[in-house]
């Protein structure tokens, strides 16, 4: 040692100082959080308050009648079925396509290649399209073009269109196209989160790329994919514009029995109630009640999806 | 390895050079003590041997410490060579002490005859030592290689001297003590030359990475057996 | 190549009578050059790796040793923009020939990575993964191979009671030994190891090194390491690389006690890089 030893302690450390900027930021972010929670509470409270009257099992599950504006006789059972059906069908379409696209973009595509960039910008643009445009798209493409062609092929002599009209399947497909970006992005994120070391390990053992994706990567990415599904469901359940021309019906005497049937829908029913009701004051409870049921249905669908995801996560953590 | 490691390596080399210098000086002074019959000088040589012992220990300690850092290649060879150097030089010091002790004993009796062969052997041995050290300092393995065969010359002188002293002792028994002492001194000088040869072999290993020990020696001639080692005191 | 002098053993154990120079050459690298796009990473490399010995690649960061290692099982194919000239022959066959089945190559040339990368599956499934890919499905057969591999990797005793627990629950050293077990389960001919112990503590490192010395009986091992003493401890041959070039290739003893090139000496004694 060449230097003389310095004294280490220069005195007591003192009490903590008050940092105004820190405090202010904490306060600001806390206030923002509180504000959001408060807004949520107000909205839900308002809904439940007004929709509570007339809320009964008969309301939720009971069938609709022609006179759906009378609180005493209104029921939203068919709408619940319709909404659930279209959301579930949508999920069946959007998950495979979205996941496959995401897998292509992450695992196979070369990052700088023009084709890849085209796909990516297409996905981004798709995300920004207004919902009503999807509705028109569904009408023009699915119903007129695809449905019309199917009718021409399968039942050319039938004057009444079977496929070429608003139907459950077209509404679901339209919603699938709309929520595709959500699923693609969520899947891509979860695929990217998997360390490349795992893929390398698999390939170095003599697995093909496909085997690696199916046996190592996808199982790991499953929670992320399910998250994408949850987001898609939440978004789609409350959308009216895409289903407006493609399958939602004002009134149907019975539940849809085939994919080519139209259906009644909760979100659409809210729209109907608020624009077509002769006596808005009398119908208001139904309106609020329907919204509450829609929220509950969305909530229920999400809970199911979250439970599935939790189980998948737990299984991934524990064993193979 | 770091700068600190290099500094330690330099320190190791310094200790070696110091020790070599002291060892050579010890032999030289012991010879002078013999030739000039200077008992005081001889006693100084004996006393100074502890310095050489201490240096050997110091070199070994530093060497082990450096080895624990797992050095490789040239560094590894330098450290192992340094430790062997230290051992050889310490023994050179011991031989100088032996010569000094015998010189004191010889001083008690009149000189038999003028010393010719023994100083000659001493010069040869010291020169070998000097050359080996120069080869070490100046990174000249060829020079060290040239030292190795010269050991034979000293061996031959030692054998010749032993034969002469042996026949002398037989003819004139009153000279036995002096002759024996001289034989011991001769043997000690032969050993100094051996150590110098060892040093030269180590220097070749250090700079060329090849082990030349025991390879350049021809088969031993089938005549006199080596005399028994002298008693140390 | 110089045969090691019997007095200068760097490793404790050399089988009596076997000379390291007598082992036949299994991998021949001939005038191999590699570019990442336009940047050269390997320049005109030629040497041979001998069978059932441990060969170490050493050199400062960025010298190309890992790149070269990955050429041996064509893992560099996975990187965009990689261009190669020259030949790599394993058992006489050019592995970059168009007709070569890369999947089969990677089964015969296994790899262990710097950071252990067990699958987030059970210990059993990690090892059974590659076996199932090859079509081995019978439980009895899988059980047997899993046990054999774990024993060979010196991991069996520690995990035999929890084969179906997640591999991620193992310690770092255990995970790396699991990766080794996984790699040897398919009985490759060659095992490539890219700094396998660099992320481990000294005790775990020592166990991996012992393991490598045991594995040498059955596999040809190539190991990339930046730890010179490790290379001196476990390898028979060492190749020193610098800036994409092979500077010196010789027995480990020679490289670490008396290298021929000054560059090698400077690197090995830590005076650069």
What does this structure look like?
The complex is a heterotrimer of chains A (320), B (233) and C (273). Chain A contains 11 helices and no strands. With 320 residues, chain A is mostly helical. The longest helix of chain A is centred in the C-terminal third of the chain and has 39 residues. Chain A is flat, with a radius of gyration of 27 Å. The termini of chain A are far apart. The model of chain A has no long low-confidence stretch (mean pLDDT 85). By secondary structure, chain B is mainly α. In chain B, 77% of the residues lie in helices and 0% in strands. Chain B is built from 7 helices and no strands. The longest helix of chain B is centred in the middle third of the chain and has 35 residues. By secondary structure, chain C is α/β, with parallel strands linked by helices. Chain C is 33% helix and 25% strand. Chain C is built from 10 helices and 10 strands. In chain C, the strands form 2 sheets. Chain C has a 6-stranded mixed sheet, sandwiched between helices. The longest helix of chain C is centred in the middle third of the chain and has 14 residues. Chain C is globular. The N terminus of chain C is likely disordered. Classes of the chains: A mainly alpha (320), B mainly alpha (233), C alpha/beta (273). Chains in contact: A-C, B-C. The interface between B and C is medium-sized, with 14 and 17 residues.
Task: Chart the SSEs and their pairings.
The complex is a heterotrimer of chains A (320), B (233) and C (273).
Chain A: H1 20-52, H2 57-61, H3 77-108, H4 114-127, H5 131-154, H6 168-192, H7 196-204, H8 209-237, H9 241-244, H10 266-276, H11 280-318
Helix pairs in contact in A: 1-11, 3-6, 3-8, 4-6, 5-6, 6-8, 7-8, 8-11, 10-11
Chain B: H1 3-35, H2 39-67, H3 73-107, H4 117-137, H5 141-147, H6 151-171, H7 176-208
Chain C: E1 25-36, E2 39-50, E3 54-58, H1 65-71, E4 82-90, E5 93-94, H2 102-108, E6 109-112, H3 123-133, H4 139-152, H5 156-159, H6 172-184, E7 190-194, H7 202-215, E8 220-224, H8 228-234, E9 237-242, E10 245-251, H9 252-257, H10 262-268
Helix pairs in contact in C: 3-4, 3-6, 4-6, 6-7
Instruction: Tell me the distance between the termini of chain C.
Output: 26 Å
Mean pLDDT of chain B: 91
Largest sheet of chain B: none
Question: What is the number of strand segments of chain C?
Answer: 10
Strand content of chain B: under 5%
